[in-house]
Inverse folding.
């Protein structure tokens, strides 16, 4: 039969594993948003190259491509901010779970 302290230790261990999974997913989400933002900023920089002529600039402005890219970049920045907040929450949950595991295994 399983002793109560073993059951508690198992539950705490499962809580830590879940916290690790949530943290890893949150970290991956942040990295994906950072890459997405970098790609958008590269596309904007490509529109702003000094080699581009006035015609290219005028067409870009006329059809709103640069505005669209800037709007997308702002949206990604907001999503990135939210993902970073979730990452911080996940980090705190992981710390708490690790602390609980230390308490159970040490005591």
């Amino acid at each position: 039969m399983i002793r109560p302290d073993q059951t508690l230790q198992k539950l705490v261990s499962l809580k830590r594993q879940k916290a690790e999974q949530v943290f890893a997913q949150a970290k991956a989400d942040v990295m994906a948003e950072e890459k997405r933002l970098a790609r958008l900023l590269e596309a904007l920089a490509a529109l702003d190259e000094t080699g581009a002529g006035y015609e290219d600039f005028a067409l870009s402005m006329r059809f709103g491509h640069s505005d669209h890219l800037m709007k997308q970049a702002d949206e990604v920045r907001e999503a990135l901010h939210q993902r970073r907040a979730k990452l911080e929450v996940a980090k705190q949950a992981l710390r708490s779970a690790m602390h609980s595991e230390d308490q159970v295994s040490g005591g």
About this structure: The radius of gyration is 23 Å. DSSP finds three helices and no strands in the chain. Residues 4-47 form the longest helix (44 residues). The helical segments are 4-47, 54-63, 65-106.
